[in-house]
Predict the structure.
Amino acid sequence: MSSGDNANGWSTVPLIINGKDVISETSFPVNSPSNSEKLWSGSSASIKDATRAVEAAQAAFTSWSQTKPSFRRDIMFRAADLFISRKEELFAYQAQETGAGRQFMEININGTAQILRDIGGRIEAAVEGSVPATAEQGSHAIVVKEPYGVVLAIAPWYVCITLAFGPPLRLTVFLSFTAGMPHTCSAHDQLRLPSQREIQQFSRVQS
């Protein structure tokens, strides 16, 4: 997993670009709000790093846009299950970096899993087209929903896990998280959801 835990020999939480851990040239300290002691460092993204992340999202979009709704649904369901199965680990990161209490963290993680399952259940309907009634006699129309592209999503510190999901319905996402809690927000990559290569392989099978 992507880690900044000193116990695992890391001192800096990496950026995640194209599914790979990237330690930047510069970093910033991450201190505990409970006692002000340093927990670890977080990688600082440069303009070059941000550009590489956007380019990776754009490259992944070509394959992602060809996946079937059932494939995307299964990813959402898998992510929900993984969040719940690793709840205590995620609680530990969030408690250290934000000082949040157990009740708030339960809402954050359980809410994330619920949202993921809800999105998964709606994906097929969300990407379906339609044949609307037209005003002109003898005319016809059809609505086709196509993948949109790459978007930037900025998740605030207090719900950086919960609000980061949703966009993968019809696009790929460049995520930007709060600087003060890199370990908590890196939880998305720790889930090890399908990589760009795995999605490309799936798309070739489906085509």
Remarks:
- The chain has a mean pLDDT of 76.
- DSSP finds seven helices and seven strands in the chain.
- The chain has one domain: 28-201.
